[in-house]
Structure formats: C-alpha cells, structure tokens
Amino acid sequence: MNIFFSLIKCLIFLIYWLLIANITFRVLIKKRRSIASSLSWLLSVYIIPFIGIFIWFFFGELYLDKRQKKIANRIWSMSNTWLNELKSRTYIFQIKNSEVATSLFQLCKHRQGISGIKSNKLKLLTNTNKIIETLIRDISLARKNIEMVFYIWKPGGIADDVAMALIKSAKRGIHCRLMLDSAGSIAFFRSPWVDIMRKSGIQVVEALKVSLLRVFLRRLDVRQHRKIILIDNYIVYSGSMNLVDPFLFKKSSGIGQWIDLMTRIEGPIAATMGIIYSCDWEIETGLKILPPLPNKTILKDNSNKNSSIQVIASGPGFPENMIHQALLTAIYSAKHELIMTTPYLVPSEDLLYAICTAAQRGVKVSIIIPLYHDSILVKWASRVFFTELLEAGVKIYQFKKGLLHSKSILVDQQLSLIGTANLDMRSLWLNFEITLVIDDSHFGKNLFCIQKQYISDSVLLDKKVWSMRAYWTRILEKIFYFLSPLL
C-alpha cells in the first residue's frame, strides 16, 4: 500500500512539473506578450502552484476552438477577394488627410490595406434616450437588412422598445441579424426575448458561448465587446453604448447612470463595418454574409469632402496589435492638445510613456475617468499610474455624475478616435473591439465640447493631495498593479 501511494505521489509530482514546463514554454514563445505580463504569469504559476496552473488554463492563452480559429485566420487577409474589390472602388476613398491625421491613416492603410473613406453624414450622439429614439426611427424605416452586435443587451426599459421595433421590422420582411456576447448578455439569453425574436424571423446568435464544456477549448474571457448597428448597408452606429436602459442598468451598484458616446454615419463606411460583422458572423455560424460593394450612387453630392474615416477592428483573425499601434500613433501626433476619456485606465508601458512624453513636450494632456467605478480591481490597478502621469504634467479629471463609460481620444480638435476599446490590456490585446478613426474638424469640435462638459462635471486630481494619500492605499495599488498585466 505504501508503494502504491508513493507511486501516486510521484505521478502527481511528474504531471505537475510537466504542466509547469509546458506553461513556461508557452509563456516564453508567445511573441506578443510583454515582459511584465510574462513575468506575472511565471510568478503566478511558480509561487501559487495549483491555483496558478488553474488560472492559466482559463485565462492564459488567446484561442478560439479549432473551427473558429481556422475561419478567423483567413477572413482578414490581404488576399481576401472582397477587400481587393472594395479597393477598386476608388471613388469612396479620401485622397488627402489633415497633417495631424496623416501618420495614423498611413498606418491603417499599410496594416489594413485600405485608405480613409468618405461619408455623407457624420453625427455624434450623447443622450441615450435620443440615441434610442433615432435608432428606432432608422429601424422602422429600414428597407433591406438590419445587423447588430452588442456586448450587453439587458432587457427592460428602452431596450425593450428597440426589441419591439426590431421585431416589427422582421415581420414586415426585413432581414434582421442579432449577435450578442454570451457572458455580457446573459440576462437576455435567460429572458423570453430570445424565443420571441426568433419566432418573428430574427436570427439571434449567442457569441463566444460560455459553458463548462468549452473550458478547455478556448479562453472563456475572450469576449465579443463590439457595439455595431448596420442598417440597409448604408447607416452605421458604433461607440461605447450597450443596449441597456441607463436608468435601470446596474442601478443597485449606486454609481449612477452610465454615460456613453455613439456615432451615427451614413455612407460607404458601412461596407467596411459590414465586412467586420461578416467576419464575426462567420466565426460564430460558419456562414458567409458578405455585404454588397458600394457603388457611385452611395456618395451624395453633399458628401463631406473634408472628412475621412477608418475602422479598426481587433480580435482573433484581425490585424494584430492594431488598436494599440493606432493609439500610440495618435498620441505621438498631438502637437497642442490631447484629451482622453476612458472608464478603465490600465495602460501598457508604451502607452503610459507616450502620454507622459506628450505632456512633457508641451502638449496639454487631459485624462477623464470615472470617480465612481463598477470594477474594484481596475479602480485600484489604475491608481498606480496616477503619480507618474501627474508628475509628467497630465491633468486627471474624475467624473462625478455617474459612470463615464465613453471611450474617446481627441488630438488637436481634429483627429478623433471613438469606439469600444478601453485603455487596458483586455481591450488592447484580447477582446473583439472596434474603433472609429475620424479626421474631421467639425466632428472634432463637437467632441471637444462634449469632453469639456465632462471636465466641468469632474473634480481635478490635486498632485499634492494625491502625494499625501495613506500608506496602506499605496500597498494596495502595488498589489493590484502586479495583477494589471493579467487584466
């Protein structure tokens, strides 16, 4: 009996060290992972043995299941026939960009293969009720198709009004597709709305399903975080807003109403948004739904000749590290003023250095974050960056009228970046995200007014007061900072 137990112990010991060796090898060969992230994983696995191994198998690697990975690897390649045909429609592309935007648009062209695209109409939306009202009107006027993807759809309030509008459109023959993240929209998939929508003819897809059976097939924390609405291959909505009623969503948390930004665009940009949606749909269903290529009639005579838009998508199958590169390029392009809003501030070392450098070379840099937060982990992890930012001359504003959820960057009131990506590791390198890059002075001035309103509703973090914070809070900040590469 003693021999048997000794053999079992030896077997467990052998399996344990084989797992450790396997994880160490995977961490070291991962080309995109930073040194800080690699060290965090190695320390976690070696110092907290079994727990570290368990966490690694859940969150350590970015992968889909085999079928999804195969699709993802081919859909956004430069050999993609649809993209090559889109590039032949030269009339939709903007030839020249403003000085501050040129570098970023050149980067996008090199990495994604297409230039900035013209638009007919570009509008920035801030009031959730008005956004929903406008959206419902567009849904009711749709003539061909409606496609949506959201991270969160929470039933109740004005979200139900959108559901009813979508159902009515489906019943009158409009082709409707709805893709929602499994984890973010768990309340929706447990509600009667799924069956009601499907019976009305709406195709509802649960993206990146969460279940125990999928634990060893892929990472469970890879999430579909995009927010996109496409109507008639012509109207596009995108931004930070989930399909929720802000007066009801997470009301019990006591942090107040969620504050978001959405952009509504008319024109050929719908084609590039459509191919991104098509990619996501194929990954989930295996079915191709390529959007129609834009013709000359899609651009109206009154189209904005000085406006140029790029769409940057991230996630498995899309150009690697693209959003991170875009953010760095935008920050380094700033000459006069840089304003950033984000609910989650846990930047990479490169982003932190770029922001501090901008302030040190004379750019007026402001970062607006929520005073009240829904994530304790991110809240504490973000605090460790404050000292370095403040010392560099960055102004940090803490928004006090709810949870500021909008994600925006404005460079010299000309170049705008608006989308779903937060300034944290998860958005930059893990989730399916989307960012609109807009080179338009009128749009930039509108965004500037909104950001100034955010600032007026915020408290400025005082450098001296911050330096006098309690010692125990500094210890907590360092602990959460240690975990930040894993966020």
TrEMBL record:
Species, as recorded: Buchnera aphidicola (Brevicoryne brassicae)
Gene Ontology terms for molecular function: cardiolipin synthase activity
Protein name: Cardiolipin synthase A
Similarity comment text for this entry: Belongs to the phospholipase D family. Cardiolipin synthase subfamily. ClsA sub-subfamily.
SUPFAM superfamilies: Phospholipase D/nuclease
Organism domain of life: Bacteria
Biological processes annotated in GO: cardiolipin biosynthetic process
InterPro entries reported in the protein's UniProt record: Cardiolipin_synthase, CL_synthase_A, PLD-like_dom, PLipase_D/transphosphatidylase
Transmembrane segments: 6-29, 41-59
SMART domains: PLDc (SM00155)
Function: Catalyzes the reversible phosphatidyl group transfer from one phosphatidylglycerol molecule to another to form cardiolipin (CL) (diphosphatidylglycerol) and glycerol.
GO CC terms in record: plasma membrane
